[in-house]
Amino acid sequence: MRGSPAARLHSARSGACRARLVLPCLLLALAPLPLHAQVHIPPPDDLVEELPVLPTDSDPAIPAPSSPPPSAPLSMTLEEAKAEARSTGASLRGAYQGLTQEAGAAGQIPGYQESYPGQTQYYTNPDALHTDGALAGWSSEAYRTANSTTRPTVDVTRSDLARATAIAADPNAYLDGMSTDGSTGDCVPLPPGSGAPNTAEWMCHVGSQVVEQPRTCVRSLAVTEWASTLYQYLCVTSPTFPGCASLAANAQCRLTSSVPVPEYALTVDTYECDAPISDPNIYLMATVPKPPPADAFQVASNAYRCNSDGLSAALTFDPVTGAPLQYVSGLQQCGTIAADSTCTRTTAAAAGLPERSLCKLWDFIGDPFGGGGYLSCLEPALPEEVYLCSSNIAGLTPESAVSKWFTQSWTDNACSIDPANCTLASETCTAPGETRMIGGVAVTRPCWEMTRNFLCQSVVGGGNDCGALEAQAGCSLTREVCLDDPPSSDGSCAVTERVYACPIPGTSQEPAQYICGGDVYCVNGECEAVEREASDEFKDAVVALNALGQANAEFDEAALTLFRGTRETCSHKVFGLSNCCSGKGVPLLTPWLCSSAEKLLDEKDDKGLCHKVGTYCSSSFLGICVTKKDVYCCFASKISRILQEQGRPEIGKPWGKPKTETCEGFSIFEFQQLDLSVMDFSEVYADFMEAAKLPDEAAALVQIQQKIADYFAAHRP
After folding, report:
1. Among positive and negative, which fits the CA dihedral 76, 77, 82, 87?
2. 105 pLDDT exceeds 70?
């Protein structure tokens, strides 16, 4: 086909519309055609000018028309016609050129306003249109009513529509026999309703189940002083003497240097070994400390001794005899040391210091002039305090200073956990921030002991949580679904999901309804007058037109599809309380365990916006399903969902498997194949009835005909 792409698309659309129904073909008019040129609209040129005051609305003096120009000859050339037009325009320009300056010129323009409209404010601030429009909408009662989410609705089901069909097929069976005053006549029961709004689906499970058992293990931190030694060996080799053979073959030894001695045909090698090697052909040169590993840590331990009696020098004494022992000076006070966060109080023995006692006051016993007597401590000082500090205290001198390297490792205390079947649930430190003496050094670690809580899974048979549904009155088993993924090759099923239809709590079965002839209906013995409404054909037309409008709104220009849905899922624990898939009309059983997306899905499903595709097992343990997911396709409106549900069977487009369904929309070609006239839109009738009262078709036709007749009668010459 020749021509531009737009022309070919238009031609294809026209051909398709001639072969199909009118309503689906309206979609083609709604889909945008490709454009090959841009239209430029210049901005107004009065954005910043002062707006002048317009003249008053009075009739200007219009000049009398001049004499008509002479008639054109029967034939003239193109140039003669142009000259004639210029001459006529020049004469008229002189007569009318001042008309717009006359007083009251604005009065000659229909609907013209004396002042500039208020909308000129949007010339310089177009973004205000959105805000002002929203405020105007919410201040309008009609807008709030049309967009209210709390309007009462009526759920009209297929079976309820079947009632109207049964009555329309044989109206005399229901309406005859009633007198004009309603005193006589028979009441005929209406066809029964489906009762669907009073029931919902409930699920339970039978078969093997995965149970979780808590397990607790304790881990301890082992800190070891790094005191390894390196052994440095020297050996000699020659072509006939392998003196380094024992070192070269030992995995704990490493060659560090090799020096050849050519004049003697010898090679002198040096090795470092982690352990001593016994061999008469090698020579031990030295032993040196081995460098600590990368994950080791160093602790500096400074031992400070201090007193709280203010002593700077004193004699020590024997606590048993009280006799003096030694004079010591340079004593330090404990205030600064005790306040330092890097210092830990300990004992002299633990810090490797000798014990000693200081005396504050001495007494001489005996005759000092007779050559006899001795000193004895009359008032001992308070016991000295000993601190181990990991830093240097400014202005104080440690009595000993030690720096050591340590390694650490975690060990499990007699705890066997299978990593394949157990999951770490929590971990808590049960010995935090302690300081322990290791090798005469105070070592502080953030945690010395860790308690770990695990959940370990195992498979047990005989699971069944269907007892409550089986015993509940009114519940009936509707179907069974095997949750094994992949399914067993022998046809067996480890976990089976049973689906029951049960009454919704708080609802009751629909009472029997009757209709008595003569525009009267009776329910439970109470009769009321029947109000005539529009026929179903008018409702179907309104809904179909709305469906086409919805198609225009939901057209995806990128994918060229209509009524595309979004894939949404909710999870349900098999043999567990956690259930975020309640189903339409049933509240969530465990909302505190559900995500915000699952709660929103439940709201959409209750509003009739979602179609349930199916269920699949989302997680399993040893082939046993643990968690399942329900998959939904949610749409922008009920009409979109109905078109997908009833349109797919028409064109043979099934839903995909729950695990892979993507909720794709209809292509333009697929939508052209749909026959909207055979679809049941009764579910959305109530929404349209709430928005506007539909008139009786016959009465509306009479009113339209009368208005047409009145118009022609008023405008007949």
Report:
1. negative
2. no
